[in-house]
Amino acid sequence: MQNKAPGKDISLEDLKEKIPLCAKKHKNHKSIVKVKDISFGGKEIPFLSGPNTVENLKLIMSVGKLLKSLRLKGMRGGAFKPLTFPYRSKKYFEPKLDGLDWLKQTKDKYDLVVTTEIMEIKYLDNICKATDIIQIGSRNMQNYPLLTECAKTGMPIMLKRHYGSSLRDWLGAAEYILAEGNNKVILCERGVSVPHTHKSTSRFLLDLQVIPAVKEITHLPIISDPSHSTFWAPWVESMTLASLAAGCDGILIEIHPDPKNAAVDPLQPLNFNQFKKLLLKSKKIAKCFNKKIV
Ligand code: PEP
Ligand code: MN
User: Fold this and answer.
1) What is the mean pLDDT of the chain?
2) pLDDT tens track for 142-173
3) What is the Å distance from ligand 2's center to 234 Cα?
4) Residue whose CA is closest, atom 4 of ligand 1?
5) Cα 19 to Cα 14: distance, rounded to the nearest angstrom
6) CA angle, 235 as apex, 229 and 238 as ends, to 5°?
7) What predicted TM-score, i.e. pTM, was given to this entire model?
8) Considering only CA atoms, which residue is closest to atom 6 of ligand 1?
9) What is the DSSP string of 4-70?
10) Is residue 254 in contact with ligand 1, taking CB distance under 6 Å?
11) Does an H or E element contain 227, and which?
């Protein structure tokens, strides 16, 4: 097939034939994904904030309480964790069904919208009952049977980009969800591997440029994860602000009352005070776009 847009990763044929449901139908085509009383892709910019891992009920309740006091609506927290190395310690564990139960209790108490990652289809029902947005982690971006089963539930789905994937492959994965008739897809950029990330100073590189690229060709909302991309709390503020300036539709961010003692990835969460400061700055940027952080 002739490529009529040479030099571009995604050709016009791709837009028509491979990812027709992701592609914009007209210049101003935008989808707004509504989840309970918040929405992605419209006038709101939701922050989904919380610990990497739902370590215990007390921890997640303290996060819920903070979010409520800041009038934020979205919370994150992993109950099932795809850890890079297989060994677990007492501190380095997966709470699984207990974690879902703690998320649900916190969500009900503070009236929050919650996202958590799915790893195995066998937990799909439990996840649907306890949370509001199914998170597909980077490592499962191209696990097509998982995408299809999740899509069939009709639940909103946050599809994280694999750190080695092109935009074309990422949208191919999103198309699997849309093809099941589920149009509640939220893309999440979380950093990619490139040569400079092979140094110890950077594990990933936040691909800020993919935000306008996604908006140029698709109607889907895109959020940014400055925590996993930087893997380093001191850089999270600048990358959050940069993502907002680049036009993202939401932020997925790790916060923890005591980052040093976080069970997983202790280098990346902000503490509650750092988070509050970041929020004040974020609100100023959102205002430039006539949008509101929720
Ligand atoms: C996460 O958000 O908890 C996570 C594991 O992220 P990623 O899939 O992007 O590595
Ligand atoms: Mn992690």
Assistant:
1) 95
2) 999 999 999 999 999 999 999 999 999 999 99
3) 16
4) 137
5) 6
6) 100
7) 0.96
8) 137
9) SSTT-SS-HHIIIIISTTTB-SSTT----EEETTEEESSSEE-EEEE-SB---HHHHHHHHHHHHHT
10) no
11) helix 226-230
